[in-house]
Specification:
Length: about 160
């Protein structure tokens, strides 16, 4: 059913679940797997980097490490993924946010499924932080599989 699966990863615990689901789907369907990680320039405004060049070097390096760890895990599960580091530079004429970049990459590659994690934020935290997953669902032209973060263990009473 699926021949080309794009999985968006960010190095979080939820991202590890995304990788596990995407790898299993790719293996089960004999599909190609593309792992993407997005580096966003707006983060540079918050990050403590002495120069924009230093930020990009550090951000790219961290993104490459995230992708390489994911490659290793996917290969251990029997899938050889492609890797792509995507960058968003906001000083252009049009600001493109993370969901739009992921959806555009899914179309460009072209994927027939996007797998992405959701942290399940609600209320004020969702309003303030937004949701990359919600944005991808709204803008992708292919089906999107949302992988929820692992629920916190319930305390015994």
């Amino acid at each position: 059913m699926f021949e080309r699966i794009l999985a968006a990863i960010d190095g979080s615990d939820t991202s590890a679940l995304v990788l596990a689901h995407a790898t299993e789907l790719a293996r089960a369907h004999g599909a190609r797997l593309l792992l993407v990680h997005v580096v966003d320039e707006l983060t540079a405004r918050v990050a403590a980097a002495p120069t924009p060049e230093a930020f990009w070097k550090a951000a790219r390096g961290e993104g490459e490490r995230i992708l390489e760890r994911a490659r290793t895990d996917a290969e251990k599960a029997g899938v050889k993924p492609e890797l792509r580091l995507l960058e968003i530079r906001t000083f252009g004429s049009l600001v493109r946010r993370i969901p739009a970049v992921i959806a555009a990459e899914a179309e460009r590659w072209p994927a027939d499924l996007v797998v992405i994690g959701t942290h399940g934020r609600r209320g004020l935290s969702k309003a303030l932080l937004g949701s990359v997953a919600d944005g991808v669902v709204r803008s992708a032209s292919v089906p999107v599989l949302l992988v929820r973060s692992a629920p916190a263990r319930r305390r015994a009473r």
